[in-house]
Design brief:
The chain is mostly helical. It folds into two domains: about 70 residues, no CATH class; about 130 residues, Orthogonal Bundle (Cytochrome Bc1 Complex, Chain D, domain 2). It contains 14 helices and no strands. Helix 4 crosses helix 13 and helix 5 packs across helix 11. The longest helix is centred in the N-terminal third of the chain and has 31 residues. The N terminus and C terminus are likely disordered. The structure holds heme C. The site of heme C (HEC) has 26 residues, from helix 6, helix 7 and helix 8. The site of heme C has 26 residues, from helix 6, helix 7 and helix 8.
Length: about 270
């Protein structure tokens, strides 16, 4: 059970922290070194005898890193729920829609602010009528790639996950699926949006379709960065210090015992 909670994200975070640490160290030491010699201060023996850093084999590093880390894609596809611009537009509106909460005051964005890294920065989330749940909100960024949703993995994907909070009594607190549908049907603007997102369906405003649209929106909430650019072949994407940090990370064996995690990472990459 513990292991099933270990997420691919953990590994990425670890690497991120290490890269930051490497960058930070360089920042902390580099400028001071320079200042000292600029002022003509005697360089320390350690600095004088410092061996030149061995040249880094970038291609070898990349191929080693590729055996460990996945690369963030631009979107997380799901053949059962293809991402279309129409679905994403609708999903974005529903993500910010307070009228599908009992109080008409909350929305997905209350606990997963996209301007606050996809979380609410609370120890546990505050839902309907100020009630606190028992867990804090994980980020929605890159969540669609996870092999399971929620801290305990009880939903298989973002499509299934999106239905949970709407009906959860301490979150959005809607009493039933039909009640959500009737709220949506009462808002004239949603008719054409659902019809465009689910073409050919006679009665497109359904609870399932609302969840699918939200999920399609989430499938595009990806945050590829310089590390992913590097993994995709751009040698210039990371600073020399970051590359050195990555080299240290993969050489030190931080990940040697994580063949289980590695399998999960590739599962999450699918
Ligand atoms: C009241 C706060 C609150 C609201 C509103 C809320 N969430 Fe969450 N969300 C949470 C919490 C807390 C968890 C973790 C719960 C758990 O693991 O049992 C969570 C988990 C998730 C996850 C799982 C991420 C992962 O990595 O496992 C996703 C995705 C998500 N929410 C999306 C949504 C969407 C979409 C909506 C709107 C339909 C929504 N949330 C509304 C608080 C909230």
């Amino acid at each position: 059970m513990m292991h099933s909670m270990l997420k691919a994200r953990t590994l990425r975070r670890l690497a991120g922290a290490l890269l930051l640490a490497a960058g930070g160290l360089a920042l902390a030491c580099g400028p001071n070194e320079e200042k000292k010699s600029a002022q003509g201060a005697a360089p320390t023996a350690a600095a004088e005898n410092k061996p030149a850093a061995p040249a880094l084999d970038v291609a070898a590093l990349r191929s080693k890193a590729k055996g460990i880390f996945g690369v963030l894609p631009a979107e997380a596809p799901n053949p059962a729920n293809p991402v279309t611009p129409e679905k994403v537009t609708l999903g974005r509106m529903l993500f910010y829609e307070p009228r599908i909460t009992l109080s008409r005051k909350l929305s997905c964005s209350s606990c997963h602010g996209l301007d606050t890294y996809g979380v609410d920065n609370q120890p546990t989330s505050v839902g309907h009528e100020g009630q606190r749940g028992e867990r804090n909100s994980p980020t929605v960024y890159n969540a669609a790639l996870e092999f399971a949703q929620f801290w305990d993995g009880r939903a298989p994907d973002v499509e299934a996950q999106a239905k949970g909070p709407v009906l959860n009594p301490v979150e959005m607190a809607m009493p039933s699926e039909p009640e959500v549908v009737s709220r949506l049907k009462a808002i004239p603007g949603y008719g054409p949006l659902f019809a465009a997102a689910f073409p050919g369906e006679a009665d497109p405003i359904t609870f399932d379709n609302a969840a699918k649209a939200i999920a399609a929106f989430e499938r595009k909430l990806m945050t590829p960065g310089p590390f992913d650019d590097f993994m995709n072949g751009n040698d210039q994407a990371m600073t020399p210090e970051q590359l050195a940090g990555l080299q240290t990370f993969v050489d030190t064996g931080c990940i040697t015992s994580s063949s289980r995690t590695r399998r999960r990472t590739s599962a999450a990459r699918r």
